[in-house]
Amino acid sequence: MNNQPLSGKRYLVLGVANERSLAWAITQALAGAGAEVALTYVNEAIERRVRPLAAEVNSQVVLPCDVQSDESLDALFAELKSRWGTIDGVVHSVAYADKEDLGARFCKITRPGFRVALDVSAYSLIAVAGRAEPLMSANGGSIITLTYLGAQRVIPNYNVMGVAKAALEASVRYLAADLGLQRIRVNAISAGPIKTLAASGIPQFRELLAQFAVKAPLRRNITQDDVAQTALFYLSPASAGITGEITFVDCGYNVIGV
Ligand code: NAD
Ligand code: 0WE
Question: Measured between alpha carbons, how far apart are the two ends of the chain, in Å?
Answer without folding.
Answer: 43
